[in-house]
Amino acid sequence: MPTLLLPDSDIAAPITCILSDVDGVMTDGRIIYNEDGIETKQFHVRDGLAIKLWMKSGFQFGILTARTSKALAKRAAELGIENVHQGCEDKLPAAREMMSQFGCTPEQVCYIGDDLPDIAVMHSVALAVAPEDASIDARHAANWILRSGGGEGALRELIERLLRGKHKWEDHVRR
Questions:
Q1: Domain with 26 in it: what CATH number?
Q2: Against a cut of 0.90, is the pTM above it?
Q3: Distance CA 87, CA 166 (A)
Q4: Which residues contact 121 (CB under 8 A, 6 or more apart)?
Q5: Would 73 be classed as within a structural domain?
Q6: Residue 167 domain flag
Q7: DSSP string, 57-105
Q8: Inside any domain, residue 175
C-alpha cells in the first residue's frame, strides 16, 4: 500500500486508538536472556512518555504481542496501559476484540507493527504504520513508514505526529 498523501491533520483526525506490537516496535526486536534464563527487554523512555500523553489526551492505547513477557507486563503497568494481549499468535481476532472493548471501529484505529504476524491487522485498520527497520512485507503493508527504528523512539514519532495532526501536541509542551 502506498504512503498516504493526505496532510497529517486529515489522517490523524479520525484516529482515536493506537494498537501496537511489542518486539520490533517498542523494543529493537532482540530477545535477551540473562544468566538465569530470564528474558529482559529494553524500552525507549520517549515512547513511554508519548504513550502517556496519548492516553492523557483522551485516546486509547493497546498492546498485542505473540510473545509473553513479565518485563512487558511491568512496563505496561508503569505506563497505565490496561489493554495488553500477550501470547496471541493470531493478532487479528485479538485486535478486533480490543477494538470492541474500546468501542471503536477499524476506521478509528492505527496499528504499528514490524513483521509478518502484524500484516493482517495492518490491512484491517485505517492507518497502518511500520518502523523504519520493519520487514519489507510490513513496510509494504504500511501507510506510513517512520524514520525511527523499533526500540528507537518509533512510538514517540508516531504519537507526536498524530497529536500534532490533531493540534493536541501543543497542550503538552510546557513553555
A1: 3.40.50.1000
A2: yes
A3: 33
A4: 19, 64, 91, 92, 95, 111, 113, 128
A5: yes
A6: no
A7: TT-EEEEE-SS--HHHHHHHHHHT--EEE-S-SSHHHHHHHHHHHHT--
A8: no
Contact between residue 58 and residue 17 where contact means Cβ atoms under 8 Å apart: no
**Gyration radius from the chain CA atoms:** 15
User: Which tens digits make up the pLDDT trace of 92-128?
Assistant: 999 999 999 999 999 999 999 999 999 999 999 999 9
Kindly give the interhelix angle for 45-56 and 154-165, rounded to the nearest 10 degrees: 30
Cα distance between residue 148 and residue 157, in whole Å = 7
Model confidence at 167: pLDDT above 60: yes
Do the domain assignments include residue 144? yes
- Cβ(167)–Cβ(57) below 8 Å: no
Question: What is the amino acid identity at position 123?
Answer: H
Burial of 117-139, coded b for 16+ CB within 10 Å and e otherwise, reads bbbbbbebbbbbbbbebbbeebb
Structural domain of 120 = 9-160
Checking DSSP bridges between strand 83-85 and strand 60-64, what pairing results, if any? parallel
Number of structural domains the chain divides into: 1
